[in-house]
Amino acid sequence: MATIVNTTEEEPMLAVVRSTAELAWADAGAEVADPEVARLCAEAQQHVLAGRWLDMATLMLANADLLLLAPRLSDKDLECSLTVICNLVTEAGSEDEALEIARLICAKLTHQPGEKPTLRIKVLFSLYNLLPSLSGKALVYRKALELAAAGKAADCVVPTFKNIDAFVAYWGIGKPEQRDLFLAVTRILKDQKGMTKEYFKFLNKYLATFDGSADDADAIGAAKEEAAAAIIEFVKSSDLYQCDLLDMPAVAQLEKDEKYQPVYELLKIFLTLRLDSYLAFQTANSTLLQGYGMYW
Length: 296
Description:
Blueprint lengths: L11 H13 L5 H21 L2 H9 L2 H6 L5 H12 L1 H4 L3 H15 L7 H14 L3 H17 L13 H8 L3 H15 L6 H13 L15 H13 L12 H4 L8 H12 L2 H10 L1 H6 L5
Protein name: EIF3m
InterPro entries: COPS7/eIF3m
GO cellular component, one term: eukaryotic translation initiation factor 3 complex
C-alpha cells in the first residue's frame, strides 16, 4: 500500500497566522500554547475555505503588533509577513471589501509610528499597488503621509510629491480630499531644509482649494495659519517675485483678522505699494517682523 506524503508548503496566510500565534503564546508553555495555536490556525483555515477575507484580515491583524515589535524577527521576514496580509485585498470579493481590509491594515501600520516607520511605509506602498480601487489608493497614500509625519520619516515620501498632480487626476478625488492631501504635504515640507519653494508651492495649492463659496464657509477659517505662512514665505524669499495670494479668499480673510491683519497688510505693501509704505510699516511693526524673522 502506497504512503501519501504531503510535500505542499503551508499556505502563506496560514503560515503568518501560525507564526503570529506562536509569538502571542510564547510565554504560556507548550501545554497552553499548542492548543491555542492550533485553534487559531483552524479558524484561519475555515476563513480561507469560506472566502471570508475580512474576517481573515481581522484575525491576522489581531496580534500583528507582535510581529512589528518582535526583536528576533528580521526586517525582511517582517516585510514578507505584512505583504502576505496586504495580499488579502486581492482575494476580496468586492472593492468595498478590499477597502475595508485596507482600512484595517492602515490602522495597524499607523499605530506606534515610531517603530520601524520606513518599513511600515514601504508596506503601505505595496498595499497601494495591490488595491484595485482608486479611492483605496488615495486613502493608503494619505495614511503613508500621516505615518511619515508621525514617524519622522519624510524622506520616504518627499520624492513622491513631484507626482501629486498626476495622483490627484488619477484618483479623481474631490476638493475636500485634495485640500487634506495638500495640507498634509505642506506640514511635512515645512520642516524640510532646502525645500522652501516646494513648501510655498503646496501652501498655494492648499489655499487655492478655497474658492469663497458657501460650501467653504465652515472650513476656510481653519486656513488662516497656512495663509499667513504663505505670505511670510513669499515676503522672506529672495527669489519669489510674484504670486496670486491677494486673489485667494483664504488669504483675503486675514484683512479683518485680529491676529493676522498686519501680515495681510505686509503682503499688500509688497505687491501694490512702494518702499515708503514698507518703511512706515516696519517702524510700526518691528516686533512682528522680528518674530517672523523678517527684520532687515
